[in-house]
Design brief:
Layout (H helix, E strand, L loop, with lengths): L1 H26 L61 H15 L3 H12 L6 E2 L2 E2 L6 H11 L11 H13 L12
Antiparallel strand pairs: 1-2
Helix pairs in contact: 2-5
Amino acid sequence: MRNILIIFFVTLLISSFATSLIFSLVGKKSEVLSFDIEATPVPTLLQIPTNTPSPIPTRTPLPTSLPTSIPLPTKVPTPTSIPQPQYTSEQIHGFIERFSAQYGVDANIMRHIAVCESGFNASAVNGPYAGLYQYGKTSWTTNRVIMGEDPEPTLRFNAEEAAQTAAYMVSIGKGWVWPNCFP
């Protein structure tokens, strides 16, 4: 700290001397064509580390008008699957016959796809695919909306709904959805 004060006073002394010299020269009646003043380097002040801690930042005050009630996050319910009715294989054959006739497709093709895809098991799941005809959620939803039927993905496990959707899809030429099972 003492060095800083010395540098300050020396700088002040030099600048006051230079100022008085300039005023003494200007005050003379003789003509001065130019002033040559040599600039002397002035040391810059360096920050010297100290052992005193830096000021602690203060907290920003909260707004004065807080809501009267703070909403708490609500727990999002986990979707539960809607239990689907269990049908016998005779009932499933009946659905296939009914919807094949309704949509004008061969019932044997419908049975072949169901056996190939799920082993004729309406509860079958293989990764993202589910039901008698192993529909993915997007394929199921898209085709059910086009049909004007409920697009709920858990209906893939309902053999009656799945047979109707498969018959519709085969009737409009979408047998390619089952590339390994469509004859």
